[in-house]
Amino acid sequence: MALHRDIFWVGRQWAVTGAGIQAIDQRLRGVLDIEIARLWDDDLVQSRRAKPGVNAVDFDSALTLARERFPQTPTPDPIVAQLEALGVVEAPVASPVLPAMKLHVEGRLARFLPQWRVRR
Fold first, then answer.
1. pTM for this one?
2. How far apart are CA 63 and CA 57, in angstroms?
């Protein structure tokens, strides 16, 4: 798999991209790549680090930078999720109404404000 177009860091063997951690060597065809959702899976990380030919120092640097760039999202407790689905625990309902946009300029003349246009 080719490197993702958003490249944040490039090491000798690994790169941190918009897709996660990717091996620079394209002959591997993405076999050792780690997606963003699996950056915090320690078993997967250890299995990738244990592969022969992996530069451990470069891999650790890439992993550290990727975990800083893509922080771990808290996983909801499965028991609480099941109780909410059954209606035992009430979850707060988010309002589907979008807040009104407020335009407020105080103490500035309109002719000196920067103009903006909507591009189509």
1. 0.59
2. 10
Strand partners, 15: 10, 22
15 in Cβ contact with 7 (< 8 Å): yes
- The one-character DSSP state at 48 is H
On average, the pLDDT of the chain sits at: 80
Residues 6+ apart with CB under 8 A from 51: 32
**Residues 64-110 pLDDT 10s:** 999 999 888 766 677 777 777 776 666 566 666 766 777 666 666 66
* Widest CA span in the chain: 67
DSSP H or E stretch at residue 43: helix 42-49
Task: Write down the pLDDT at residue 30.
Answer: 73
With 0-12 CB in 10 A as exposed, 13-18 as middle and 19+ as buried, what is 3? middle
